[in-house]
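pinging the channel bc i need a second pair of eyes. not urgent but kinda urgent?? the chain im working w is below, pasted from the shared doc
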Amino acid sequence: MVIAIGFEGSANKLGIGIVKDGEILANCRRTYITPPGEGFLPRETAEHHQQNIHEVLKEALDQSGIKPNEIDVVCYTKGPGMGAPLMVCAIVARTCAKLWNKPILGVNHCIGHIEMGRLITKANNPTVLYVSGGNTQIIAYSRQRYRIFGETIDIAVGNCLDRFARVLKLSNAPSPGYNIEQMAKKGKKFFQLPYCVKGMDVSFSGILSLMEDRIDELLKDYTPEDLCYSLQETVFAMLVEITERAMAHCGSDEVLIVGGVGCNEHLQEMMGVMCSERGAKIFATDERFCIDNGVMIAHAGALAHASGTRMEFKDATITQRYRTDDVLVTWRDD
């Protein structure tokens, strides 16, 4: 039985979670929210994490009822992510590991999302669509690696949605993507946008550039709700297409959507239609586990620790670029 604590801070969410043998004991989180029209920068995001991390750690320990001496392994997000915020969590995790005399383990953020999704939904061997503000990948497991079948060749889908929310000066609370989703529900008139699928990869930067450059003239003929609706329909259709192609290649009958954009109910609905046509099942989680959190890092770290993965303290560093397929998956033998 492994009790693990996980520190997550790769972007604007700061999360600390504690798990015991797949059971969630604590899932505490703080979000750095910037004014409408602004994104979050590494330095300010790191300062937010610094100011809040002690409080969140205390909250997680109190909520779980676990004492530091009961913890088996301290896990933290090694990457990918923004350098300065990652560093804050890594330093606190290293300090806790030293103070409590516990082993430390760096976890790949993407694999944290995948393993959390598998735990919550009980999906067996799904084709995974990982969509967030920093990542867009279509992933399937094979021979002890999570293989990337397709990905964005420029910006992530969540980044595209967030930056369009900035163009419209939408609020960043609770998140820009959520506010676009709500506005899109009221959209009636569809504006034809470029559809950029290149083999198994997708491209979003040109779609965003077109919207940014022509926003003033577009708003003469379309409402902001129409534009949110048009953007969502286009980018989600692209994602469904590459997911279906990966499923066909792998002979898969399960899709798991993870990452912050995975909360979007319209994306889940569009993916559900495709799955029902193929006789496949769709799995997704709610915002507690879709959005970055510490529990997913604790859970993925606990799986790795239980299967014998170890990290020397000198290797407990961060890396902003850390590929999903760089990780040897020691805990799956299928």
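so The radius of gyration is 20 Å. and The CA atoms of residues 30 and 249 lie 39 Å apart. — does that match what u expected or am i reading it wrong
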